Amino acid sequence: MMKNIKYILLLIVVTAFVACNDIEDVNLEEVEEVSVLPELTAGTADFSNYIAVGASFTAGFTDGALFKAGQENSFPNILAKQFANIGGEAFTQPLMNDNTGGMIAGATPIVPYRLIFNGTGPQRLNEFFADLGAPAPQITTDATTNLGSAFNNVGVPGLKSFHLTFPGYGTANPYFGRFATSASATVLEVATTQNPTFFTLSEIGGNDVLGYATSGGVGIDQTGNFNPATYGANDITDSTVFGQVLDGVIAQLTANGAKGVLANVPYITDLPFFTTVPNNALELDEETAARLTGFYQAVSGIFAQGVILQGGSPEEAQALAAQYAITFKEGPNRFLIDVPVSPTNPLGFRQMTEDELLLLTIDRSALAEGYGSVALTPEVLQVLGILQAGGTPTQEQVGLVLAAVNGIDDKDALDTDELMAIKAATDAYNTKIESAATANGLALVDFKSILSEASTTGIKTGDFTLTTNLVTGGLVSLDGIHLTARGYAVMANKFLEAIDVAYGSNFMASGNVANAGNSPTNYSPTLQ
Question: What pTM, to 2 d.p., does this model score?
Answer without folding.
Answer: 0.91
